Amino acid sequence: MSPRIDAHQHFWKVARGDYRWMHPSLEPLYRDFGPQDLAPLRARHGIDGSVLVQAADSVAETEYMFELAAGDATILGVVGWVDFEAPDAPDTLARLARNPKLVAVRPMLQDIPDVRWMLRDTLAPAYRALIELNLAFDALVKPPHLPHLVRLVDRWPDLRVVVDHGAKPVISAGLRWPARAAWSADLRTLATHPRLCCKLSGLATEASRDWSDADLAPFAHEIVEIFTPQRTMWGSDWPVVDMAGGYSRWYDSSQSLFASLHEGERRALFGGTAAEFYGLSWTPQA
Fold first, then answer.
1. Domains (ranges, CATH) in the chain?
2. Which residue from 199, 193, 282, 212 is spatially nearest to 250, judged by alpha carbons?
3. pTM to 2 decimals?
Protein backbone atom coordinates (compact mmCIF):
# COMPACT_ATOMS: atom_id res chain seq x y z
CA MET A 1 0.00 0.00 0.00
CA SER A 2 1.29 3.44 -0.91
CA PRO A 3 1.42 6.20 1.70
CA ARG A 4 -0.81 9.23 1.55
CA ILE A 5 1.52 12.18 2.00
CA ASP A 6 1.09 15.91 2.13
CA ALA A 7 4.32 16.94 0.41
CA HIS A 8 4.27 20.60 1.46
CA GLN A 9 3.10 22.17 4.73
CA HIS A 10 4.40 24.59 7.36
CA PHE A 11 4.43 25.13 11.11
CA TRP A 12 5.53 28.32 12.82
CA LYS A 13 5.64 30.10 16.15
CA VAL A 14 5.28 33.85 15.63
CA ALA A 15 7.27 34.81 18.74
CA ARG A 16 10.39 33.16 17.30
CA GLY A 17 10.72 36.35 15.27
CA ASP A 18 12.55 35.19 12.13
CA TYR A 19 9.56 35.08 9.77
CA ARG A 20 10.42 38.32 8.00
CA TRP A 21 7.41 38.13 5.67
CA MET A 22 4.88 37.82 8.47
CA HIS A 23 2.99 40.77 9.93
CA PRO A 24 -0.33 41.25 11.76
CA SER A 25 -2.24 42.16 8.61
CA LEU A 26 -1.80 38.61 7.29
CA GLU A 27 -4.95 37.15 8.72
CA PRO A 28 -5.62 34.28 9.24
CA LEU A 29 -1.90 33.36 9.20
CA TYR A 30 -0.66 35.63 11.99
CA ARG A 31 -0.82 33.08 14.79
CA ASP A 32 1.01 29.95 15.82
CA PHE A 33 0.46 26.73 13.86
CA GLY A 34 1.73 23.40 15.14
CA PRO A 35 1.23 19.64 14.79
CA GLN A 36 -1.85 19.73 17.00
CA ASP A 37 -3.55 22.03 14.48
CA LEU A 38 -2.79 19.83 11.48
CA ALA A 39 -3.63 16.51 13.14
CA PRO A 40 -7.45 16.70 12.70
CA LEU A 41 -7.06 17.67 9.04
CA ARG A 42 -4.74 14.73 8.41
CA ALA A 43 -7.15 12.39 10.16
CA ARG A 44 -10.14 13.71 8.19
CA HIS A 45 -8.45 13.04 4.86
CA GLY A 46 -6.48 9.92 5.72
CA ILE A 47 -3.03 11.52 5.36
CA ASP A 48 -0.26 9.29 6.74
CA GLY A 49 2.30 12.05 7.13
CA SER A 50 3.75 15.22 5.70
CA VAL A 51 6.85 17.08 4.60
CA LEU A 52 7.48 20.13 6.80
CA VAL A 53 8.89 23.04 4.77
CA GLN A 54 10.82 26.07 5.99
CA ALA A 55 9.11 29.43 6.33
CA ALA A 56 12.04 31.51 7.60
CA ASP A 57 15.48 32.19 6.17
CA SER A 58 17.38 30.98 9.23
CA VAL A 59 19.17 27.84 10.32
CA ALA A 60 17.52 28.32 13.71
CA GLU A 61 14.13 27.64 12.15
CA THR A 62 15.44 24.42 10.59
CA GLU A 63 16.57 23.31 14.04
CA TYR A 64 13.14 24.26 15.41
CA MET A 65 11.54 22.03 12.76
CA PHE A 66 13.86 19.20 13.82
CA GLU A 67 12.53 19.59 17.38
CA LEU A 68 8.96 19.34 16.11
CA ALA A 69 9.81 16.28 14.00
CA ALA A 70 11.40 14.56 16.99
CA GLY A 71 8.08 14.78 18.81
CA ASP A 72 5.76 13.89 15.92
CA ALA A 73 6.30 10.78 13.81
CA THR A 74 3.90 12.06 11.14
CA ILE A 75 6.51 14.67 10.12
CA LEU A 76 8.21 12.39 7.62
CA GLY A 77 10.77 14.88 6.32
CA VAL A 78 12.01 18.42 6.77
CA VAL A 79 12.92 20.92 4.05
CA GLY A 80 15.30 23.35 5.74
CA TRP A 81 17.27 26.47 4.92
CA VAL A 82 20.92 27.47 4.77
CA ASP A 83 22.70 30.57 3.52
CA PHE A 84 23.92 29.29 0.15
CA GLU A 85 26.42 32.15 -0.18
CA ALA A 86 28.05 31.63 3.21
CA PRO A 87 31.61 30.25 3.03
CA ASP A 88 30.63 27.56 5.53
CA ALA A 89 27.45 26.51 3.68
CA PRO A 90 28.78 22.99 2.91
CA ASP A 91 29.75 22.47 6.56
CA THR A 92 26.35 23.70 7.74
CA LEU A 93 24.61 21.36 5.31
CA ALA A 94 26.73 18.43 6.48
CA ARG A 95 25.90 19.20 10.11
CA LEU A 96 22.18 19.52 9.47
CA ALA A 97 22.18 16.37 7.32
CA ARG A 98 23.16 14.33 10.38
CA ASN A 99 19.51 14.60 11.28
CA PRO A 100 17.81 11.90 9.16
CA LYS A 101 14.64 13.98 8.84
CA LEU A 102 16.41 16.55 6.62
CA VAL A 103 15.48 15.69 3.04
CA ALA A 104 15.98 19.00 1.19
CA VAL A 105 16.77 22.67 1.54
CA ARG A 106 15.00 25.68 0.12
CA PRO A 107 16.40 29.16 -0.44
CA MET A 108 13.55 31.65 -0.64
CA LEU A 109 14.14 32.43 -4.30
CA GLN A 110 10.83 34.22 -4.80
CA ASP A 111 11.91 36.89 -2.30
CA ILE A 112 15.32 37.56 -3.88
CA PRO A 113 15.13 40.50 -6.34
CA ASP A 114 17.69 38.98 -8.72
CA VAL A 115 15.88 36.19 -10.60
CA ARG A 116 19.31 34.96 -11.77
CA TRP A 117 20.63 34.62 -8.21
CA MET A 118 20.48 30.83 -8.35
CA LEU A 119 23.16 30.87 -11.08
CA ARG A 120 25.81 32.76 -9.11
CA ASP A 121 29.17 31.04 -9.06
CA THR A 122 29.39 31.60 -5.30
CA LEU A 123 26.64 29.02 -4.80
CA ALA A 124 28.56 26.17 -6.43
CA PRO A 125 29.95 24.72 -3.16
CA ALA A 126 26.41 24.53 -1.73
CA TYR A 127 25.04 22.76 -4.81
CA ARG A 128 27.96 20.35 -4.77
CA ALA A 129 27.31 19.60 -1.10
CA LEU A 130 23.62 18.92 -1.78
CA ILE A 131 24.56 16.32 -4.38
CA GLU A 132 27.17 14.70 -2.15
CA LEU A 133 24.76 14.57 0.80
CA ASN A 134 21.86 13.32 -1.37
CA LEU A 135 19.70 16.26 -0.38
CA ALA A 136 17.12 17.72 -2.76
CA PHE A 137 16.67 21.35 -3.79
CA ASP A 138 13.16 22.77 -3.34
CA ALA A 139 12.82 25.55 -5.93
CA LEU A 140 10.49 28.26 -4.62
CA VAL A 141 10.16 30.02 -7.96
CA LYS A 142 7.75 32.08 -10.00
CA PRO A 143 7.45 32.05 -13.82
CA PRO A 144 10.23 34.64 -14.40
CA HIS A 145 12.68 32.31 -12.61
CA LEU A 146 12.00 29.32 -14.85
CA PRO A 147 14.46 30.03 -17.72
CA HIS A 148 17.20 30.38 -15.12
CA LEU A 149 16.12 27.19 -13.35
CA VAL A 150 16.48 25.45 -16.72
CA ARG A 151 20.09 26.64 -16.88
CA LEU A 152 20.66 25.54 -13.29
CA VAL A 153 19.56 21.95 -13.87
CA ASP A 154 21.59 21.87 -17.09
CA ARG A 155 24.62 22.97 -15.10
CA TRP A 156 23.99 20.52 -12.22
CA PRO A 157 22.40 17.42 -13.82
CA ASP A 158 22.90 15.31 -10.68
CA LEU A 159 20.99 17.77 -8.48
CA ARG A 160 17.54 16.52 -7.48
CA VAL A 161 15.07 19.40 -7.83
CA VAL A 162 11.38 19.83 -7.10
CA VAL A 163 9.50 22.89 -8.38
CA ASP A 164 7.27 24.22 -5.61
CA HIS A 165 3.65 25.19 -6.33
CA GLY A 166 3.90 24.56 -10.08
CA ALA A 167 6.05 27.74 -10.20
CA LYS A 168 3.04 29.83 -9.12
CA PRO A 169 1.18 30.46 -12.38
CA VAL A 170 -1.12 33.50 -12.30
CA ILE A 171 -4.37 31.53 -12.23
CA SER A 172 -6.39 34.61 -11.31
CA ALA A 173 -5.78 35.86 -14.88
CA GLY A 174 -7.17 32.64 -16.33
CA LEU A 175 -6.24 31.37 -19.77
CA ARG A 176 -5.68 34.97 -20.89
CA TRP A 177 -2.60 35.24 -18.67
CA PRO A 178 -0.01 36.61 -21.15
CA ALA A 179 2.88 34.49 -19.87
CA ARG A 180 0.96 31.22 -19.78
CA ALA A 181 2.57 29.82 -22.94
CA ALA A 182 6.07 30.63 -21.67
CA TRP A 183 5.28 29.06 -18.26
CA SER A 184 4.10 25.89 -19.96
CA ALA A 185 7.07 25.73 -22.34
CA ASP A 186 9.57 26.22 -19.51
CA LEU A 187 7.94 23.47 -17.44
CA ARG A 188 8.10 21.14 -20.44
CA THR A 189 11.81 21.86 -20.81
CA LEU A 190 12.37 21.22 -17.10
CA ALA A 191 10.46 17.95 -17.36
CA THR A 192 13.12 16.58 -19.73
CA HIS A 193 15.43 16.37 -16.70
CA PRO A 194 14.70 12.99 -15.09
CA ARG A 195 15.80 14.08 -11.58
CA LEU A 196 13.26 16.91 -11.42
CA CYS A 197 9.71 16.75 -10.05
CA CYS A 198 6.93 19.27 -9.47
CA LYS A 199 4.55 19.96 -6.59
CA LEU A 200 0.84 20.25 -7.18
CA SER A 201 0.42 22.78 -4.39
CA GLY A 202 -0.24 26.46 -3.85
CA LEU A 203 -2.53 26.78 -6.86
CA ALA A 204 -5.59 27.95 -4.94
CA THR A 205 -3.57 30.83 -3.51
CA GLU A 206 -2.76 32.01 -7.04
CA ALA A 207 -6.45 32.01 -8.06
CA SER A 208 -9.20 34.51 -7.33
CA ARG A 209 -10.69 34.27 -3.83
CA ASP A 210 -13.92 32.79 -5.20
CA TRP A 211 -12.08 30.15 -7.25
CA SER A 212 -13.79 27.04 -8.53
CA ASP A 213 -12.46 23.70 -9.71
CA ALA A 214 -12.89 24.94 -13.27
CA ASP A 215 -10.50 27.84 -12.58
CA LEU A 216 -7.75 25.53 -11.37
CA ALA A 217 -8.33 22.67 -13.79
CA PRO A 218 -6.38 23.91 -16.87
CA PHE A 219 -3.29 24.64 -14.79
CA ALA A 220 -3.47 21.60 -12.51
CA HIS A 221 -4.09 19.25 -15.44
CA GLU A 222 -1.24 20.75 -17.43
CA ILE A 223 1.21 20.32 -14.56
CA VAL A 224 0.31 16.65 -14.16
CA GLU A 225 0.26 16.08 -17.93
CA ILE A 226 3.74 17.57 -18.26
CA PHE A 227 5.38 15.78 -15.35
CA THR A 228 3.10 12.71 -15.10
CA PRO A 229 1.74 11.55 -11.73
CA GLN A 230 4.99 9.65 -11.13
CA ARG A 231 6.86 12.97 -10.98
CA THR A 232 4.16 15.16 -9.42
CA MET A 233 3.44 15.32 -5.69
CA TRP A 234 0.37 16.78 -4.03
CA GLY A 235 0.85 19.25 -1.20
CA SER A 236 -1.53 21.38 0.85
CA ASP A 237 0.66 24.44 1.43
CA TRP A 238 -1.15 24.61 4.76
CA PRO A 239 -1.68 26.92 6.58
CA VAL A 240 -1.10 29.38 3.70
CA VAL A 241 -4.02 27.67 1.94
CA ASP A 242 -6.28 29.02 4.69
CA MET A 243 -6.16 32.30 2.79
CA ALA A 244 -7.71 30.53 -0.22
CA GLY A 245 -10.47 28.31 1.12
CA GLY A 246 -8.58 26.01 3.46
CA TYR A 247 -7.06 22.55 3.53
CA SER A 248 -10.23 20.56 2.97
CA ARG A 249 -11.46 22.63 0.06
CA TRP A 250 -8.12 22.28 -1.77
CA TYR A 251 -7.85 18.56 -0.94
CA ASP A 252 -11.39 17.86 -2.14
CA SER A 253 -10.80 19.90 -5.29
CA SER A 254 -7.63 17.96 -6.05
CA GLN A 255 -9.40 14.66 -5.57
CA SER A 256 -12.17 15.76 -7.92
CA LEU A 257 -9.80 17.15 -10.56
CA PHE A 258 -7.89 13.85 -10.76
CA ALA A 259 -10.69 11.36 -10.13
CA SER A 260 -10.21 9.94 -13.64
CA LEU A 261 -6.62 8.85 -13.06
CA HIS A 262 -5.90 5.16 -12.73
CA GLU A 263 -5.48 3.99 -9.13
CA GLY A 264 -1.71 3.62 -9.48
CA GLU A 265 -1.44 7.17 -10.81
CA ARG A 266 -3.52 8.50 -7.93
CA ARG A 267 -1.35 6.67 -5.42
CA ALA A 268 1.72 8.29 -6.96
CA LEU A 269 0.27 11.80 -7.07
CA PHE A 270 -1.09 11.72 -3.52
CA GLY A 271 1.90 10.17 -1.79
CA GLY A 272 4.05 7.73 -3.73
CA THR A 273 6.01 10.32 -5.67
CA ALA A 274 6.85 12.30 -2.53
CA ALA A 275 7.91 9.13 -0.68
CA GLU A 276 10.24 8.09 -3.49
CA PHE A 277 11.66 11.52 -4.30
CA TYR A 278 12.41 12.50 -0.70
CA GLY A 279 13.22 8.96 0.47
CA LEU A 280 10.59 9.02 3.22
CA SER A 281 9.92 6.28 5.75
CA TRP A 282 6.34 5.92 6.92
CA THR A 283 4.02 3.75 8.98
CA PRO A 284 0.57 2.88 7.58
CA GLN A 285 -2.40 4.14 9.56
CA ALA A 286 -4.20 1.49 11.58
1. 5-278 (3.20.20.140)
2. 212
3. 0.97
